[in-house]
Write a structure and sequence with these properties.
mainly alpha, globular
């Protein structure tokens, strides 16, 4: 009797996994090869850099080597009092440039205090404006968002009851995109663990930090704006007067403005683009996937274009100028 009662639940679970399997596969294909390829490329870049340094030193005129002296290994960096020992857990190709890391506190132990420090800087941002700083990007983001809000009622009707987006909406559903957003940093961290690569592990920790940092103001704006989702607007109504109409939870669920998926996707993409900026293809892939996830929310009738734009802007700016503020990474 109990088996008969449990059978419907088991069948429902199997059916759900079957429907989501394609997106699990897509997330794996995006996450695992990307992080593995970057890590391998960094190792190759380190070897190339060391070999290039050795070659350049060989061009300098030096006294003839003593035939009785042991031959030096050209694959090892020159030791000396001013040359620090290399950390084998950090790919040496990443120790310089905009993606370099010299922070010693990127760890789960320091994670809560880092987030608190980030939030302090974030909510004190108006004091920066009062000093006359950052007005140009702030006005640009506010202006574009305002224009998009004004055009939302004219753009969104094109996606209502449009069968051309049914398949896209099913693939990039809320559940599927959440799997990709949460699963990607997890795959990065697992890659770092398996390779004993502290740099990759720290990248995943920074992605989690950026995700939380951007999610907090996103929720606050949602609670204040209380904008109806396009799917919640009755069929006999247009898409005007959607603000301050929705009933939301404490965490902002039910409010459309701004898009939480866009904020999360671009915060994680910005971390990947910054940490692996030495490889020109990484920012293109990272931001391309983030844009695809973000704008898929419009034909899905989950968000307006203005919601997506502001969410993406929040994810990028908070990560770029708060998580990475005054830190040599």
């Amino acid at each position: 009797m109990r088996d008969d009662l449990n059978r419907p639940y088991a069948l429902s679970a199997i059916n759900w996994l079957g429907k989501q399997s394609i997106f699990f596969l897509i997330a794996a294909l995006l996450a695992w090869p990307l992080t593995s390829a970057v890590a391998l490329a960094q190792d190759g870049g380190a070897s190339f850099a060391v070999a290039a340094n050795a070659a350049s030193k060989a061009d300098v005129s030096t006294p003839a080597a003593d035939p009785g002296a042991p031959e030096a290994n050209p694959s090892l960096p020159e030791a000396g009092p001013n040359v620090p020992a290399a950390d084998p857990g950090i790919p040496q190709g990443n120790t310089n440039g905009s993606g370099a890391t010299k922070d010693t506190d990127i760890s789960w132990k320091h994670f809560p205090m880092r987030v608190l420090g980030d939030q302090k800087e974030l909510w004190l941002f108006p004091t920066q404006l009062a000093r006359g700083r950052h007005w140009v990007p702030t006005l640009a983001i506010a202006g574009v968002t305002g224009v998009l809000i004004a055009t939302d009622p004219h753009d969104q009707p094109h996606f209502r009851n449009n069968g051309a987006f049914d398949e896209t909406s099913e693939i990039f559903s809320t559940t599927n995109t959440e799997i990709a957003i949460i699963g990607f940093p997890a795959a990065v961290y697992l890659t770092g663990l398996l390779r004993h690569d502290s740099y990759t592990q720290q990248t995943a920790i920074l992605a989690a930090e950026a995700y939380i940092d951007s999610a907090i103001p996103n929720v606050v704006i949602k609670d204040v704006s209380r904008r109806l989702r396009p799917s919640a607007v009755p069929a006999d109504h247009d898409f005007r007067d959607t603000f301050f109409q929705s009933h939301v939870t404490v965490l902002g669920k039910g409010s459309s403005f701004p898009s939480g998926h866009a904020t999360a996707a671009f915060s994680i993409a910005t971390v990947m683009a910054r940490r692996y900026s030495d490889h020109k293809w990484v920012p293109w892939v990272a931001y391309g996937v983030a844009a695809l996830i973000s704008f898929s929310r419009v034909p899905d009738m989950a968000h307006f274009p203005s919601d997506v734009f502001l969410g993406a802007a929040l994810g990028y700016t908070i990560t770029r100028f708060d998580v990475f503020r005054n830190r040599d990474r």
